[in-house]
Amino acid sequence: MFAIVRTGGKQYRVAAGDKIAVEKIDGEAGDTVSLGDILLAGDGGEVKSADGLVVSAEIIAQTRGEKVIVFKKRRRHNYRRRNGHRQSLTLLRILAVGEAKKAAPKKEAAPKAEAAPATEAKAAAPAKEAPAKAAPAKEAAPKKVAAPKAEAAEKAAPAKKPAAKKAAPKKDA
Predict the structure, then answer these.
(1) How far apart are CA 46 and CA 84, in angstroms?
(2) Backbone angles phi, psi at 75, to 5 degrees
(3) CA–CA separation, 90 vs 20, rounded Å?
(4) Do 114 and 96 share a structural domain?
(5) Do 140 and 118 share a domain, yes or no?
(6) Domain for residue 59, yes or no?
(7) Three-state DSSP class for 45?
(8) Is 127 a residue whose pLDDT tops 90?
(9) Rounded to an integer, what distance in angstroms lies between the CA atom of residue 57 and that of residue 93?
(10) 20 to 30 Å CA-CA from 30: which of 53, 76, 81, 157?
(11) Statement: residue 138 has pLDDT above 60
């Protein structure tokens, strides 16, 4: 069975076992994602209804595409601009083209919600302690460093007298 899937503003014809490179999708290697925007589905020469179909895929890697050089020039105006671009891509392996499973997304969402409050509590505690430790060190260091520099400058260089002005030579007419 094949399907036409839209992701990242482009359309791809996919079947189980295919590998495709699409615009960046959030996730790490080994994660499973579902592509739900199915435009068309079919089996052989027959076109089937795309309602309720989902394409499941596994992320192989997060990578970047080939470098594209953009060069602009206007002749006889000394105008040249050179720029490069590498698109971020996600490599996907299509696992299955079939009906959506409603239970799987709910199970994935629950652990993420439970993990978030625990990480927030851990992150908040060290943040309170860090500024307290850093503040006394910053106050002590400038006092010690500033005083010796001022005293050393006064001892090393006595006050200089301004230079006397010389009279301009008289011109004979």
Answers:
(1) 44
(2) -70, 145
(3) 8
(4) no
(5) yes
(6) yes
(7) coil
(8) no
(9) 5
(10) 53
(11) no
Q: Which two tokens stand for residue 15?
A: 């079947």
53/115 same-domain check: no
Same domain assignment for residues 42 and 92: yes
Count the domains in the chain.
2
CA dist., res. 73 & res. 26, Å (int): 37
Give the model confidence (pLDDT) of 61-100 as tens digits. 999 999 999 999 999 999 999 999 999 999 999 999 987 6
pLDDT score, position 100? 64
Q: Are residues 141 and 87 in the same domain?
A: no
Residues spanned by the domain of 141: 104-147
Both 35 and 62 in a single domain?
A: yes
Question: Which helix (H) or strand (E) is 116 found in, with range?
Answer: helix 103-156
- Long-range CB pairs of 102-107 (<8 Å, 24+ gap) are 105/34
Q: Rounded to 5 degrees, what are φ and ψ at 170?
A: -80, 140
131 occurs within a structural domain: yes
Tokens 């199970």 -> residue? 107
More confident residue, 60 or 167: 60
| 64 touches 86 (CB < 8 A) | yes
Rounded CA separation 51/37 (Å):
10
Angle 86-89-95 from CA coordinates, rounded to 5°? 165
The phi, psi pair for 86, rounded to 5°, reads: -125, 120
Whether residue 126 sits in one domain with residue 45 = no
